[in-house]
């Protein structure tokens, strides 16, 4: 639906027929860590995240998983491998 609160005139997934369904009733502007992200849009001279209504809460536990401007190391992405399974795979090869 079309937003009727902060981002007037834009399509918003939180907007319902009863109003904004986000707790607090409206989206919050981005924080400094979000600058440069591809998911940021500017409306009425304020910048908002297209994907999440409260960007500050995405950065509490580290980096935002939706951030397009952050380069992640391959080491961070790799899953931990069970050493027992790894040794069995090495034997079969």
How many domains make up the 3D coordinates? 1
Individual helix count: 3
Number of strands: 4
Order of helices and strands: EEEEHHH
Q: Could you list the spans in which at least 5 consecutive residues all have pLDDT below 50?
A: none
DSSP helix fraction: 10-25%
Percentage of β-strand residues: 5-15%
List keywords for this structure.
single chain, 93 residues, alpha+beta, two-stranded antiparallel sheet, 19% helix
Question: How would you describe this structure to a colleague?
Answer:
This protein is an alpha+beta fold. The model has no long low-confidence stretch (mean pLDDT 82). It has three helices and four strands, in the order ββββααα. It has one domain (26-92). The protein starts with 14 loop residues before the first strand and ends with a helix.
Summarize the structure.
The chain is of the alpha+beta class. The chain is built from three helices and four strands, in the order ββββααα.
Secondary-structure blueprint:
Elements: E1 15-16, E2 19-20, E3 40-43, E4 46-49, H1 55-58, H2 74-77, H3 83-92
Antiparallel strand pairs: 1-2, 3-4
